Amino acid sequence: MVCYALSAAAQTSDAIKVGGALSKPYLLTMADFQKMPRVKVSRKDRDSTDFQYSGVLLSTILAKGGATLGKDLRRENLTKYVIVEAIDGYQVVFSLAELDSDFSDEKIILADTIDNEPLLSTDGPFRIIVEHDKRPARCIKQVTSIKIEFAK
Ligand SMILES: Nc1nc2c(c(=O)[nH]1)N[C@H]1C(S)=C(S)[C@@H](COP(=O)(O)O)O[C@H]1N2
Ligand SMILES: [Mo]
């Protein structure tokens, strides 16, 4: 009997599609991710326990794909939003401007570690961590895709 297995990537989303309104859409692998500049963020979970996460700013990941950030984030580009999707179909949205350090000091990262350990397999390999959202509902787990769209 022949047994067909899903590829590891399909099961665990260890590569993320970064696409939509980008000049250079790409597939983000764990190997690429490990080479990017890292940031630490602490935030509370649902039970108000503090954890320290580390990963890469979502803006850094979008900039690698040629996103209109910094001086290019004006006029119609201010109607762009970022839709992040997970294995279970859960989706959350950020405006492009709220991710841009010219607009906000809020740290929104794609994390791969919690308290210096890899994320649990139920949360990772990649999870968005939003530093100051009062509820962790946009801290989307098991991310598979990050896409920029126009609101109009
Ligand atoms: N993929 C995915 N991520 C998700 C959710 C979900 O249903 N699917 N729920 C969100 C909500 S509503 C909350 S409150 C937090 C819960 O995170 P915790 O289990 O670490 O407390 O995860 C968020 N991330
Ligand atoms: Mo929630």
Describe the structure.
The N and C termini lie far apart (52 Å). A hairpin with a 5-residue loop joins strand 1 and strand 2. The strands form two sheets. Strands 2-1-10-5-6 form a five-stranded mixed β-sheet. The protein is mainly beta and 152 residues long. The chain is globular. Helices cover 14% and strands 38% of the residues. The chain has one domain (2-150): Alpha-Beta Complex (Sulfite Oxidase, Chain A, domain 2), CATH 3.90.420.10. Bound molecules: the ligand Nc1nc2c(c(=O)[nH]1)N[C@H]1C(S)=C(S)[C@@H](COP(=O)(O)O)O[C@H]1N2 and molybdenum atom (MO).
CATH class: Alpha Beta
- Taking the alpha carbons of the first and last residues, their distance comes to 52 Å
Q: Total strand count, please?
A: 10
- Class computed from helices, strands and strand pairing: mainly beta
- The radius of gyration over CA amounts to 16 Å
Beta-strand percentage? Answer: 35-45%
The distinct ligands, each listed once, are: the ligand Nc1nc2c(c(=O)[nH]1)N[C@H]1C(S)=C(S)[C@@H](COP(=O)(O)O)O[C@H]1N2, molybdenum atom
Q: Please work out how many helical segments DSSP would assign.
A: 4
CATH superfamily grouping = Oxidoreductase, molybdopterin-binding domain
Total domain count: 1
User: Which second-level CATH architecture applies?
Assistant: Alpha-Beta Complex
User: What is the oligomeric state here?
Assistant: single chain
What is the average per-residue confidence, as pLDDT, rounded to a whole number?
A: 92
